[in-house]
Design brief:
By secondary structure, this protein is mainly alpha-helical. 88% of the residues lie in helices and 0% in strands.
Length: 94
């Protein structure tokens, strides 16, 4: 059992490092979701199934969904700002 715990802790360290070093915005929600699943597996190994179920809901579903929504809003706001700048520069030329 101790070897399984050490192995899962190694996976948590590797997953946390991947989350911290991920720079590609489109891949971040996927990496965070996988990390949430690894954490829930760790909680199961350490005999905390209630915490594992909560982690699945929050870490593997909720947080990646919020990240995707935030990215979509930022992209939409960026496009609106770009259109406004283009329309303002078009008015100045006339």
């Amino acid at each position: 059992m101790i070897y399984l715990q050490i192995a899962i802790l190694g996976l948590v360290v590797a997953g946390g490092t991947m989350v911290a070093l991920s720079r590609k915005i489109s891949g971040q929600p996927i990496i965070v979701s996988v990390f949430g699943l690894i954490l829930s597996l760790m909680f199961m190994v350490f005999q905390a199934p209630d915490v594992a179920l909560s982690q699945i809901v929050v870490g593997a579903v909720g947080l990646p969904l919020m990240i995707l929504l935030a990215i979509a809003k930022l992209r939409r706001d960026e496009q609106m700002l770009r259109r406004k700048r283009e329309s303002d520069s078009g008015k100045e030329r006339e």
